[in-house]
Amino acid sequence: MNLREKMRRRFQGLFRKQELDDQMDTEMRSHVEMQTQENIEAGMKPEEARRKALLDFGAVESIKEQCRDERGVRWIEPFAQDVRYGARKLGKNPGFAAVAVLTLALGIGANTAIFSVVNAVLLKPLPYPEPGQLVQLRADWSGSPSSDIGSTTFIEVKAQSQSLARIAAYSGGAMTLTGIGSAERVVAGAVTADFFPMLGVQPAQGRNFTREEDTPNGPKSVILGHGLWQSRWGGDPDVLGRTITVNQQSYTVVGILPARFQYPEPFQLWTPLALGETGGTFVKYGEGMVLLKAIARLKPGVTLEQAQTELQTIAQRVQPAQSGEAQPAGGPRAMGTGGGGEGGLTLIGLHEQVVGDVKGALLVLLGAVAFLLLIACANVANLLLARAAARQREMAVRAALGAGRLRVARQLLTESVLLALAGGGLGLLVAFWGVQALGQWSDASLPAMHGIGIDARVLAFTLGVSVITGLLFGLAPAVQAWRTDVNAALQEAGRGEMGWHRNRFRHLLVVSEVALALVLLIGAGLLIKSFSRLMDVNPGFRTDGVLTFQVTLTGGKSSPQKINFIEQIVERLKALPGVQVAAATDSLPLTQFERITPAEIEGRPPIDFSQVKPGEVRPVSRPTVTVDYFNAMGIPVKSGRAFTSQDAHPGAGVVIVNEAFEKHHFPGQSAVGKRIHLLGSSAEAPWATVVGVVGEVRQSGLAGDVMPEVYSPELKDVGDALSFVIRVSGESAGLISAVRGVVAEVEPNQPLHNVMTMEQRLANTTTSRRLNTALLGSFAAVALLLAVVGIYGVMSHAVTQRRREIGVRMALGAQKSDVLGLIINGGLRLTLLGVAVGLAVAFALTRYLSSLLYSVNSTDPLTFLSVAVALTGVALLACWLPARRAANVNPMVALRTE
Amino acid sequence: MPKEKTDLLQGTLDLLILRALQLGPRHGFGVSVLIRQTSKEVLQVEQGSLYPALYRLEEQGWITSDWGVSDNNRKAKFYRLTPAGRKQLAEERASWERLSTAINLVLKTT
Q1: CA distance B96 to chain A (A)
Q2: What's domain B12-108's architecture?
Q3: Does the interface ipTM go beyond 0.85?
Q4: Are A293 and A136 contacting, i.e. CB atoms less than 8 angstroms apart?
Q5: For residues A657 and A871, what is the distance between their CA atoms, to the nearest angstrom?
């Protein structure tokens, strides 16, 4: 019979049991009938003949059973037997089962929870047709790639590229929705007409933008996101075709997006980008040029590399023509280096772009939980081995009664897998809880593309992990059973002695547990150290008692209108009870709003942009602030003076720089009294005199760099994204509604957003670091606990085993301290071996943590050393308890129990 | 149980079944009849051994089976030898002959 035939029979045996049984029945009945016939022919009466035939045949059912055994079902039926037996066996030992299942549930649950995040973020494709063809364009702004590209570049690429099937651009920003109810700030995306068709999205109601709408003076139309449509209009379908007021202008609603549509950025409302030939209408950074983001769909069969090569060529052709014209003043951060600005173009898969930085952290966490599960496995394997010792007699008896080795090993494996499946089931509960806990993280720092949850793939993962886990930790006792010599076991079983190799195996497990736990602990130690370093960083401003909020001006206010708005609000805020100081700025730290430009110093040669190389000119940040800003934010004046109200008058020509600026431009000298000139505002901008130097501020978060800064008190160039700062005495929470009232008095339709203290803003910037640290820290803590329990288990088992030996030693004169030393020595040797292996593994692996670390080297010797010492100490404690028990052995009792 | 019945040596049943089927395809009953008759009623194969053995041999691929109709028009399962079975028979036969010769030698030595 060939293999295929065999397989066919196996399957028949499994699924056609009834049919095969019927056939067997027929075969045997015909045998009996033939025998009857023969008997009749031999001269018997029919009844007699039949009775004789049946008698001769024997016990039909038992024969059938034997035949079934011979048939291809030999595998499955004993399997069911094993399962029943295993379940019964585990039920009889609930303590053991509970410990094992809980340990596994912890390990499998943690894996499932982290995997569900990995699944949602890394594995699920983007929810668009042929997502692999979608790419995002990136420009190499003086060495730091950014997804911001110039509109002129976009237009050229769109016109010239052969490898892209379609290319669309979009830009995001805040818009104010008025007309019904209170004014609302919404996050809006401005997109080219190609955008939705390229993603393969059709509005659930209405239509996409037309080309006509996507031109500078075309009809003003808007497409609503499903969420906004529900929250603002209660899902009223009649809103289609109606006119709504956005940024004080009328827009016609032409479409409503389907509920399932998601984009990596949280846009609630969409308008046409209306790019035109040169400029735009949306986020205007400089003259004639808009910075936007571009996504494209590759033509079928074109690879990312091919398209990229083509784009490089286009970029080289286009950009020389642009330099000079496209110097976006105060553009995004990367821009201000002057020089050539936007460099070569690169492409990145849209999915990769969306996933971005999260990938590294997720993979680290996934690795950490895998380690955790391995430790859990080692622990359960240890438990099983200890139990196997107790069951040795049972196994030996079974072997003596004719159970094959394979059969016994299989039965043990079945038991292990059962345990693992129970652990997996409970682990799912742990994972449900864990996923909920991770939900808050997903809001803060995960690309908001997919809901994180437990889906079919996660379930399959859990099942797979459970089975593999079960086989893994079940292997130890199964191998043990395989090797067991029946005679030796039957003789030994009575005395409870164990073979040497069994202990060696358990020792190996302890060593690996210690090693794995050490790796996790070192990883966690590095993260904790960098987190505490980060927390020690002085942000440069006060965080307590400083309430802030943001206002984004819309509707194209003129400069005097803005100044009036700011001054009125600051005045009224000051008048509120409990407010000490109030101020405003367009570059509040941690808000991502920052205007950047190169600066020229009096007496030094002017910057010649046709000559400078990328990175040569250090850009400076140029916040505009009101007079009391430093006081309100608690930014110290280091030399010179703070602003006075005279400084704010037009033409006063007074600025304050920070220490970083002083150090960079005037090393070793004082900046006070020097005259500087900021490029970009306008060529004729007057020179300004530095009157003071203030402390450095971490503008973009604690881990960010300190930029050279030039603060100006003149509001005429102030931006549209404003932040207000109030220094309060006492509790700030009660002030929030008063603050809203102030803004509503001055400008009824002006929404304000992100009302929070600087403390909250600072906490928000560290959310994902805090979460990574907390997660890895708790995984490491669990790992430590499991490893310690593992060591304790093995050592106390060893003490039990060696009772007689210890008794003999003591009878021969060994002291308590000798026994104590003997046991602790054994434990210490295992621990140190584990620590050595763990250090080597950690040394090789921690570099994958580098991206998560802050000012800590991934092989920080102090962390390595202190974690190793701490782990050894804890392990010694775990050995000490059983060792003390050993030392208290009464030799008489120990010898008599034999 | 009839007195004349002789217990089969472990492993010889397979040999006998294969040999019976070498003489042509037959059903289970036919195999037991053939063994009984050709051994002059000395060897009685119990059905409790016969059928499990048939299933085992089939599982091992030495024999194969088809449904057919017996002489007196009954539906019956007919077994026949496969090429692998023929080879197996030759081997078992050779080893049996070696064994019986050896035993005879021992028994006849005076």
Answers
A1: 24
A2: Orthogonal Bundle (1.10)
A3: no
A4: yes
A5: 50
